[in-house]
Backbone:
C-alpha cells in the first residue's frame, strides 16, 4: 500500500465521475464559509465594547453573530451552489460590519489573538464573554461560554479561524448509490439516507488521514503575541520583546499550544460509522469529568467531558441542518447532510481570510476524500494522524521533515506530492464539468508550495516580520488596517445592503419577543436541556 493510503481513486469511480449526469450534478455542490474575527481598538488590543447594536442581535441574526467573546465576530454565509456568490456574500458581510464598527475599531485578520489583557481582570478592558440577552436560549449560550472559560481559559477561546461547509448534491449521491449497488451487494441493503451518511464518514476518515496537508499549505499562524502565553508552558522561541514563534511552524493555532483539549483526547470519538460516532459523542456528553466536577453549576452547563456537541474539537465534523432538535438527536434520525472543515487559519494577507483558488482546492480535496478508498481508522492510525498534525503545525517547513505513516517514515514532500497526484485525477474532470481551468491551476499552486516552502503563508509572514522588523502584533495590525479600507470601499448592491439592514431590525425584534415570552426559570430550563442530552442514548440505539 502506497504511503499510508495515499491512493488513486479506483478505476470504476474515476469512470463514474466521467458520466454525463454526474458531471451535471457537480454544479449542485454547496459551500458556506464561517469566519471568526476579533474587533480591536486603535491601540491594537481587543475591544472592550459590547457587540454593536447596529449589527443586530448576536442571538438571532442568521449571518452576523459572536463566537466566544463580545468582541469576537462570526460572519456566516448561507450555503450556496455558486462559489462567486458565496464569496460575494462574505465580502458584503465584511463591508456591512466595517461600516458599523465603533469609532477607532478594526477587524483583526489573524488567527492567533491580538494583545490581550489579564483574563482574570474584572476591570474595564477584560476579555468579555459574549452575552445574548435574558431569554433562556440566550442565557444558555452565555452559560456554555462561561464553561469554556472555566475549562480552557479565555485566551484559547479567542483563537479564530475559518470553517468551510461543504455538501455534495442529492443527484450526485443517488448516482453514486446506484453505481455502488451494482458492484457491492451490501450497499443494496442500505437506504439512501444511510448510504449518504456513511459516505460522509468515509470522507471524514480520509480528511483526517490527510489533514496535515491543510496547515502546511494554508497555515498562517507561526508566531503569537506574548500576551497569549501568560500561564502557559511552552517551548516557543523569542522573536522579539512582544512575540514568540517557532521557525518552521505553519499553524500554532492547530498545535497543542492552540485550540486543543487534553481531556477530550482521553475520550476519542470514532468516525468509522455513524452509530459508533453517535455512541462515542453521547458518552462524552454524559460522562462526568473529574477535571470539571469541581466547578459549580453556575460556572458551566454540566460536569460532562463535553457540555454540548459544539465543544468537540477537531479538524472536521459531520453536520446536519436542524433548528429544532439537538444535533445528536437530529443526526440519529436524519443522518449527515454536510461536513464542516475546521482546519483553516485566517490568512492575514487576504481581506476575507480565504481566496477562491483555495476554495477550488478544498473542493477537490473533499471530493477526493469521498471517493478514494477509506478503510476504518485503527487506534494505531489515529495516533499517527495526531502525531502528523502536531509535527506539521510546529515544524512543517523544516527541511527534509519526515512524517509517520503505517508503512514507516516518509518525507513530507513525497507524501504531499503523492497526494496531489491522486487529487489531480479529478481536477481535469472538474475543469471539464465547469468549463474552466481553475481546478488544475489550484493543484499547480499547491504543488509549488510543497516544492518550495518559502511560498507558504507561514513562511511569508515570518520573512516579512524579520525583514521589516515587525512584531506579530505590528504586522497583523498593519495588514488588518489595510483590509479594513478594502472592506469599506467594497461595492455592495443596494438591495443586498437593504436586506442586511432589515435583518438587523428583524433580529433585534426576534430577541425581544423571545425575552417577553413566558418561560420556565433558567435553572429548570438548564435541567431540561441536560436531561435531553442524557435521553439521546435511547434515540442513538435506534440508528
Residues:
Amino acid at each position: 500500500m502506497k504511503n499510508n493510503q495515499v491512493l488513486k481513486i479506483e478505476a470504476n469511480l474515476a469512470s463514474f465521475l466521467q458520466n454525463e449526469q454526474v458531471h451535471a450534478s457537480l454544479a449542485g455542490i454547496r459551500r458556506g464559509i464561517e469566519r471568526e474575527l476579533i474587533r480591536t481598538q486603535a491601540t491594537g488590543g481587543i475591544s472592550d465594547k459590547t457587540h454593536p447594536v447596529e449589527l443586530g442581535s448576536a442571538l438571532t441574526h442568521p449571518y452576523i453573530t459572536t463566537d466566544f467573546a463580545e468582541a469576537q465576530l462570526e460572519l456566516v454565509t448561507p450555503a450556496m451552489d455558486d462559489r462567486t456568490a458565496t464569496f460575494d456574500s462574505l465580502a458584503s458581510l465584511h463591508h456591512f460590519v466595517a461600516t458599523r464598527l465603533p469609532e477607532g475599531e478594526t477587524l483583526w485578520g489573524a488567527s492567533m489573538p491580538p494583545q490581550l489583557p489579564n483574563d482574570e481582570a474584572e476591570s474595564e478592558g477584560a476579555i468579555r464573554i459574549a452575552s445574548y440577552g435574558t431569554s433562556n436560549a440566550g442565557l444558555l449560550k452565555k452559560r456554555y461560554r462561561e464553561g469554556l472559560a472555566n475549562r480552557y481559559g479565555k485566551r484559547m477561546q479567542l483563537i479564530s479561524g475559518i470553517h468551510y461547509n461543504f455538501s455534495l448534491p442529492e443527484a450526485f449521491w443517488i448516482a453514486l448509490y446506484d453505481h455502488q449497488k451494482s458492484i457491492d451487494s451490501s450497499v443494496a441493503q442500505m437506504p439512501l439516507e444511510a448510504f449518504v451518511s456513511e459516505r460522509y464518514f468515509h470522507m471524514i476518515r480520509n480528511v483526517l488521514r490527510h489533514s496535515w496537508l491543510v496547515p502546511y499549505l494554508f497555515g498562517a499562524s507561526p508566531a503569537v503575541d506574548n500576551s497569549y502565553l501568560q500561564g502557559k508552558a511552552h517551548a516557543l522561541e523569542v522573536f522579539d520583546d512582544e512575540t514568540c514563534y517557532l521557525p518552521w511552524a505553519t499553524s500554532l493555532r492547530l498545535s497543542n499550544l492552540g485550540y486543543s483539549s487534553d481531556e477530550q483526547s482521553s475520550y476519542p470519538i470514532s468516525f468509522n460509522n455513524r452509530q459508533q460516532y453517535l455512541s462515542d459523542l453521547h458518552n462524552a456528553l454524559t460522562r462526568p469529568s473529574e477535571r470539571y466536577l469541581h466547578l459549580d453549576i453556575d460556572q458551566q452547563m454540566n460536569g460532562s467531558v463535553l457540555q454540548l456537541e459544539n465543544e468537540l474539537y477537531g479538524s472536521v465534523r459531520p453536520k446536519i441542518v436542524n433548528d429544532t432538535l439537538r444535533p445528536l438527536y437530529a443526526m440519529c434520525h436524519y443522518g449527515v447532510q454536510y461536513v464542516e472543515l475546521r482546519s483553516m487559519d485566517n490568512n492575514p494577507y487576504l481581506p476575507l481570510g480565504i481566496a477562491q483558488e483555495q476554495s477550488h482546492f478544498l473542493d477537490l480535496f473533499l471530493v477526493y476524500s469521498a471517493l478514494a478508498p477509506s478503510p476504518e481508522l485503527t487506534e494505531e492510525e489515529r495516533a499517527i494522524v495526531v502525531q502528523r498534525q502536531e509535527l506539521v503545525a510546529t515544524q512543517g517547513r523544516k527541511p527534509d521533515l519526515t512524517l509517520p505513516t503505517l508503512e514507516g517514515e516518509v518525507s513530507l514532500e513525497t507524501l504531499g506530492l503523492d497526494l496531489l497526484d491522486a487529487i489531480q485525477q479529478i481536477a481535469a474532470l472538474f475543469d471539464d464539468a465547469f468549463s474552466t481551468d481553475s481546478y488544475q491551476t489550484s493543484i499547480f499552486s499547491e504543488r509549488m508550495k510543497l516544492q518550495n516552502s518559502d511560498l507558504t503563508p507561514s513562511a511569508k509572514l515570518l520573512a516579512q516580520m524579520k525583514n521589516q522588523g515587525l512584531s506579530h502584533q505590528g504586522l497583523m495590525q498593519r495588514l488588518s488596517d489595510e483590509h479594513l479600507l478594502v472592506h469599506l470601499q467594497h461595492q455592495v448592491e443596494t438591495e443586498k445592503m437593504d436586506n442586511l439592514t432589515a435583518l438587523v431590525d428583524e433580529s433585534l425584534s426576534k430577541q425581544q419577543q423571545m425575552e417577553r415570552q413566558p418561560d420556565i426559570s433558567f435553572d429548570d430550563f438548564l435541567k431540561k436541556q441536560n436531561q435531553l442530552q442524557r435521553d439521546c442514548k435511547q434515540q442513538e440505539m435506534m440508528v
User: Anything to note?
Assistant: The longest helix spans residues 412-434. The chain has a mean pLDDT of 93. The CA atoms of residues 248 and 398 lie 5 Å apart.
